[in-house]
Amino acid sequence: MLTQDPAPPTSRGDHPRARSARAPRTVRATRTLHAPAPAALAVLLALVLAVAAASLVLGSNLLPPQTVAAALLDPARDVGSVVWGSRVPRTVLGLFVGACLGLAGAVMQGQTRNPLADPGLFGVSAGASLAVVVGVYVLGTSSVLTTLWLALVGALVASVLVFTVAALGRGLASPVPLAIAGSAVSAFLVAITSYLVLSDETTLAAYRIWVVGSLSGRTLDGFGAALVPALLGVALAALNARSLDTLALGAELARGLGEHLLRTRLIGLGAITLLTASAVALSGPIGFVGLTAPHLARALVGGNHRRLLPASALVGAVVLLACDVVGRLIGGTAEVSVGVVLTVVGGVVFVLIVRRGKTAAL
Amino acid sequence: MSASTTRPQPQPPQPPAPAPGRKEARVAAPTPPADRRGPGRTRRTRLVVATGASAVVVVLVSLVGVAAGSSSLGLGDVVRTLVGLGTPAQELIVVDLRLPRVAGALVVGACLGLAGALTQTFARNPLATPDILGVTSGAGLGAVSAIVLAGGSYAVTGGLLSVGVPVAAVVGALVTSVVVYGLSWRGGVDSYRLILVGIGATATLTGLTTYMIARAQITEAAAATQWLVGSLSGISWASVWPALVVLAVIGPLAATQSSALEVSQLGDDLSTGLGVAVQRHRIVVLACAVLLTAAAVSASGPLEFVAFVAPQLARRLTGTGRPPLLASAVTGAFIVVAADLVTRAVLPSEVPVGILTAIIGAPYLIWLLIRGRREDRSA
Amino acid sequence: MTGTTDETTRTATAPSPGGAAPAPGTAGDPLVGAAPPALAARGVTLSYERAVVLEGLDLEVARGTVTTLIGANGSGKSTILKAFGRLLTPTAGHVEIDGAPVRSLSGKAVARRLAILPQKPLTPSATTVRDLVSRGRHPHQSLLTPWTAADASAVDEALAATGLVELAARDVGTLSGGQLQRAWLALVLAQQAETILLDEPTTFLDLSHQLDILRLVRSINRSRGATVVMVLHDLTLAARYSDRLVVIGRGRVLGDGAPWDVLTPEVLRDAFDLDALVIPDPTSGAPLVVPRDA
Q: What SS3 state is found at C260?
């Protein structure tokens, strides 16, 4: 949730990390080479498949892979209902939510030039939570489909509110007012949510389960409803990719290179909102994927957004689904939801990454 | 002295208009239109006057706070009772019931405002809160563990009367801060790395806390959620005194770091060049922020928003570049006392003060954001 | 412009403040030579992370001289300056100020004798020029004496010396690049230290502002006898405004001495991979480096 002005580009290479042909022996060349992009992406795809397979096989009952494969091909078989009824939806959802959040996080960090930016900063999670809570409090409903629609609407309305506040103020050119607006709006919405939740036990009961972020018991009902905004978000993100690279040079140089800043911002923010809203609507607010997936992806494929965006989506998918699987395994009969596993494990992993000094500066 | 240059000079910005709409502004010195061209003394005057006016307002609101309630007293009665001339009934109400609450509000608000100012100045970032050091999430985990593991022995409203929860909160806060600091040590502490580690730790601890609440009995979950929101209900002198002592000790200590804080804004290299012992200064500032936050949280639960918004408000009111320490404390006190007054006297049923501070503070900050078209770069 | 010989052949033993011949037995007396140098690096090894940048550096800077470190990008000039300014701890050897190891003095004590202007200081917001320059007085202040008349007059002098008196009440965010650089310099001057380290004080400035800064540096050296160590990229300006040049490259000192002695085509080729000729500057007589286009 912190932003800082981008460092001015420097032409001075006095720092030993500067790639200089003049003093090769005393200066350690920066490791600028990453795995060639196609290789890295192929590895990630393989990881996705591996995690998906694990997700289908593992769970409260360990199903032998052959049985799973057979059930996949022929749903009518004995374990077909388990496989198709719960494992497949869960796997699909896990990959989808993870990919959306990973992609949204990469766009977010590229837009704000801030390695700490999390898609939740724009009030998306707070808006979704409030809408869901209002639904339970006022309408008494907590059906999956209603929750989904409420969450989507709430998320979108909240981010529009945040953008409006930022735009009315110093405008969208600088990310700092946006982040402050996001914090303020989120805090406001969370306060109202807390009030409602504390006033009514039913609401609290529903809320505390939703807010943890979980894939359990989810089916693919309503998946189509979330898919549409997500695909739109993907399209916008793809559109934004080249601009994000230019933005990395700083706003002024970007403008000098012909970048239309306002349009870039709007496209990017639209992408972030749509992707995050879709994800949150399906699974509840899950943190940390949006924050860490881009870092991991950057370590693998580098900072070029045309490679970074898909890589981040894949990393997000792998990480989220893997945490879901872990949550299924360690909880015994009552599983630990993915939101908890992600934040706990994600926090530890993040600290380790930081300690190794591998958080790349943007 | 310099050769003439044909480079056009940038236009100086318009002077900031005084912030209207709040009591402080009514009493604050009107900013002269040539503020930026006048001597630096005008800036200092504004700082002093704004801080002093805010302090006066806080005292007034506190007195009203003591007077208001289910059986309302007149202001005169309140003053007389405080001096020792009231009836025993009045003394019971004022000293045993109302005063601890208002005093608690003042102390908690001041602690958080000051802690927020220290953190934001240290991080050179207006979005920083003591939260990022992991303090609040550590306190939360400690308190929630105590509530949940002790199992059902805390009533929803009476949870703060017990000693166990605040102590657990403080222990959690301090242990987390030490661990975060230790984890970010690598031949010295870089503020960027410290913040990152703090964020990682906060995420982990928050995840664990959310998990505990999701698994607990519903009554415990309600008590835990209530505590996490931040509330002054049921606060007693037993909770207020420790926080007051911490404020009295740490406050002046923080003040001694003020000039080093000023210099540290110029970057670590230049600060070292000017004689600031950067590592030691950093530890002292962080320790102050952690202790203040831990003290506040133990009394009232986390009121995170106060630590974020009070320094920003104070900065805009006094027109300084970084959040002023004393003014932030005063502003923080004001926010909490006012929120408490509103919840006790204005609203039909009591709302936890943590909710109110956000509901009042957030729109105010948003409004300032909208108004602040030509704010300086660090917002 | 003064005569060429004065400019270019001053050696480390020359000046004492005020320009009078050094009295026997005092600092600057070549027969005694016992006065400790303003700065000294003794067997210093410097590294970033695990990469060794310089090894076994022995360098002395005499009081009252203007020394400029030159070298290619990445050669370690700023690193040496940071080591002198105790911003970087040597992995071997030590740095001395006036003969005393830097580590033995407190931060403020060092700051009263040594001022450093690093490359990228952070510009604070909502600060006037006068406020900024006042922070240079920090080493002289304590809890009990936050602001004295001496502080105020030091700030006034610094503002006058850098020509910023009319701009004193302006917000630093509104200054042009040249004005801001002068403000930083004023901050360092307000520190009133005998030794001043400047890390690339002229980068990003146009030529006329570069000359302003360098002329100011020279006048501080002449009037106050301040010892100055700078890092500069422009070889010609470095030659024109320094008593001594030290060429850094390949992890060690490649040349050290008066400008005419150091700026030879051989050294230029060795240190900068530059094919150039060196001719006397028609206006100052200092060496002028003229690269040969292939």
A: helix
Joined tokens for residue B220:
């415990």
Q: Is residue A30 part of a domain?
A: no
d(CA C201, CA C214): 9
**Interchain proximity B373–A169, CB inside 8 Å:** yes
User: Are A26 and C251 a contacting pair at CB < 8 A?
Assistant: yes
Express each pLDDT in A88-128 by its tens digit: 888 999 999 999 999 999 998 888 777 767 777 677 888 98
Which among C163, C174, C178 has CB closest to B10? C174
The C-alpha angle B122, B125, B126, rounded to 5 degrees, equals 115
Instruction: Say which CATH architecture domain B58-66+85-371 belongs to.
Output: Orthogonal Bundle (1.10)
* Cα–Cα nearest to B247, from B130, B330, B323: B330
8 Å CB contact of C250 and A23: yes
Burial of A200 by CB count in 10 Å (0-12 exposed, 13-18 middle, 19+ buried)? middle
In chain C, where are the structural domains located? 4-121+196-291
Residue A123 Cα to chain centre, angstroms: 14
The minimal CB distance from B40 to the residues C131, C139, C211 is found for: C131
**CA B229, B232, B234, B238 torsion-angle sign:** positive
B372: nearest CA partner in chain A? A169
User: What residues does C196 pair with on adjacent strands?
Assistant: C115, C228
Which residues lie closer than 8 Å to A138 by C-beta, 6 or more apart?
Answer: none
Tens digit of pLDDT for each residue in C91-132? 889 999 998 898 888 888 899 999 999 988 888 877 889 989
Smallest CA–CA distance from A18 into chain C, residue: C74
B 100-129 → A contacts, CB under 8 A: 123-128
CA angle B298, B304, B310 (to 5 degrees): 115
- Helix or strand holding residue B288 (H, E): helix B278-300
Residues of chain C with pLDDT > 70: what percent?
A: 88
Other CB atoms within 10 Å distance of the CB of residue C140:
19
Q: Is residue A54 part of a domain?
A: no
Give domain limits for chain B: 58-66+85-371
Q: Which of C74, C119, C200 sits opposite A23 (nearest CB)?
A: C74
Q: Say which CATH topology domain C4-121+196-291 has.
A: Rossmann fold (3.40.50)
Predicted TM-score (pTM) of this structure: 0.76
The C-alpha atoms of residue B13 and residue C38 are separated, in whole angstroms, by: 44
**Chains with at least 3 CB pairs less than 8 angstroms from chain C:** A, B
Contact list, A22 vs chain C (CB under 8 Å): 72-75, 249, 272-273
Angle at B374 between CA B373 and CA B375, to 5 degrees: 100
Q: What is the CATH number of the domain that holds A295?
A: 1.10.3470.10
CA nearest B197 in A: which residue? A351
Residue B84 DSSP code: T
Q: What is the ipTM of this complex?
A: 0.77
Q: How many domains does chain A have?
A: 1
Q: Which residues, other chains included, contact A151 with Cβ-Cβ below 8 Å and sequence gap of 6+?
A: A128, A129, A131, A132, A277, A280, A281
